[in-house]
Amino acid sequence: MTDTTPEPIDDAAEQAELSEQKAVRLAKRQRLIDEATSGAGGAYPVTLPITDTIPAVRARFGDLQPDEATGVTVGVAGRVVHLRNTGKLCFASLQSGDGSRIQAMVSLASVGDEQLAAWKELVDLGDHVFVSGEVISSRRGELSIMVAEWTIAAKAILPLPNLHNELNEETRVRSRYLDLIARDQARKNVLDRSKTVASLRQTFTERDFVEVETPMLQVMHGGASARPFVTHSNAFDTELYLRIAPELYLKRAVVGGIDHVYEINRNFRNEGADSTHSPEFAMLEAYEAYGDYGTMADLTQTLIQNAALATSGSHVVTWADGTEFDLGGEWDRISMFESLSAAAGVEITPQTPIEELKALAEREGVEVPHPIHGKYVEELWEHFVKGGLERPTFVMDFPVDTSPLVRAHRSIAGAVEKWDLYVRGFELATGYSELVDPVVQRERFIEQAKLAAQGDVEAMRLDEEFLRALEFGMPPSGGMGMGIDRLLMALTGLGIRETILFPLVK
Length: 506
Description:
Mg(2+) 1 binds at residues 420, 427. The protein has 506 residues and is an alpha+beta fold.
């Protein structure tokens, strides 16, 4: 981990030094351009005679003994992350994109006076350099290339940060490109995310799910309780919304006969940002005809455990701080109402009078922004129970008035068949037995409209086009949604801004 110069520099002397370094590097860039022959050289050549990658050379020759030569010539390119020029022999560490390094040794005997002098004068930390020469091991046993030819591959105009110091979080997220150069963990985060998404897709493919894409721009936002981003279409002269969820379109696909469907894509919610929330985030949603919230819980557990295997080789994942977290085995399933009752010391059911819930909330200092029965239950549950959930746990059976898209519970009056999955104490995923009755769905939307009229900016709107699709008949179905960024949080132990490659920052 390293500190970086792109942070705001308050000290005038530091700013002047940075400007001076940039000016020197710009002069070197111009010299490289001026001295280039037609079609070759320069500060930014188009092609280079690369024969191998640094990781491949390390894999092939990593077991050389000290002061051993191979007789094998390779051509590799990398970024200069360490540079030491001493007399007739210069040393540089070249780093590839995956963080692998190899030493380049530039000697007078191998390249001659002119090229040795040019190396000393033109090569800086941060430059991309191509070198060609014999693979050897130095007297200290370091895998090296004894350079016979070299050329600048890309001239860096700004200096690299000090690679021996630690990056602060703001620099890491604002200058992720430097973070990737400097920190192994940053590169690992990118690879883990790629492996995770590939694993999710593989699990769905094995279960005959079809991946689709649904609109990002929507004439009506829906599918979740959230405040949307609003924009305007000049072509249609109408107000549009960045989607908060793909749910209502994916259900249209199920109506159309795509019985196993999923999407991995971006959602946008115009709300707060903290260690577990980002205004722009990647979301997985999936729907299975003739499934229910139980089958979707089973699927979700499999998806996450397979992702753990893909990134860690085990259901026990190791977080960035070294902590081990076990995602294996069968996960607990607890009732929201029963767990709340046990923690609060008083029985709470869907029929508990709202006055009693209000009194309990006031006594505990729990604020409820929109005082309906279900909101009181959920806020009280978070107050009493949420903080104690460390291992993966499905919290089952939610209040009906906070879940307008969910089927009524088959045996608990006033509840719906919904679960939220909590891992490490934060919500990772949610799943439903989907509401497919268009008459009841209309009634639920009307109740949401009343809440919106009372000032609830997250309430859903009545979506006539979606209701029309349901009226053509949607089979009984289960659905689930999971944040990809939060899944990476569970796998790595990092905050959400570390799991997103380029997070939104102010």
